[in-house]
Design a protein that fits this description.
Elongation Factor Tu (Ef-tu), domain 3, 12 strands, 2 domains, SH3 type barrels, about 170 residues, mainly beta, six-stranded mixed beta sheet, six-stranded antiparallel beta sheet
Length: about 170
């Protein structure tokens, strides 16, 4: 079952003297989060209206209703901000990281089961999937189109065509 509220980023500090918040985005870009007019605290339980949002050096700067001083803003430091999935629009072929974690990873040709996707590492050049096998071994798979052939959320699986050596212990 897909989560209604997804983690968007974390408040890491204040900006200026009017209570603006500096938010480290946990998505592709701060600009993605800047589009939302409502964000949420407490795993989606507490809505907060966004009065203003802009991007400064890959960080999101937010002004929220009811947060009008540095002291009030500082109370939110460390808190996670969520967005409602229904308010987000992804282009075809793009996925929320939360939706991918836990999917089974299978060979695209033989359907051999490699394990579950347990973590997505953001490396800059491309993401890397950490796949944990049934015997608790961890494998790192570059998330590039040449290797990740299909993502099927309905079937709960990712089909991959890995290069030799990623999932086998041979030389």
């Amino acid at each position: 079952m897909l989560k209604k509220y997804l983690e968007g980023g974390q408040v890491v500090g204040t900006h200026g003297v009017r209570g603006d918040l500096r938010v480290k985005p946990w998505c592709d870009s701060a600009a993605f989060l800047a589009r939302f007019r409502t964000l949420y605290l407490d795993a989606g339980q507490t809505p907060v209206r966004v009065r203003a949002a802009h991007v400064v050096k890959n960080m999101l700067v937010l002004r929220l209703d009811g947060v009008d001083s540095v002291e009030r803003a500082d109370l939110l430091r460390g808190r996670v901000l969520y967005f409602d999935r229904a308010d987000a629009h992804l282009p075809p072929g793009r996925y929320f990281m939360d939706d991918l974690i836990g999917l089974g990873v299978y060979d695209a040709d033989t359907f051999v089961y490699y394990g579950r996707l347990t973590e997505i590492l953001r490396t800059g050049a491309n993401d890397v999937y950490r796949v944990t096998s049934m015997d608790h071994k961890n494998y790192l798979l570059p998330a590039v189109p040449e290797m990740v052939r299909q993502i099927d959320l309905k079937k709960g699986r990712i089909l991959v065509r890995p290069i030799k050596g990623i999932f086998d212990d041979e030389d």
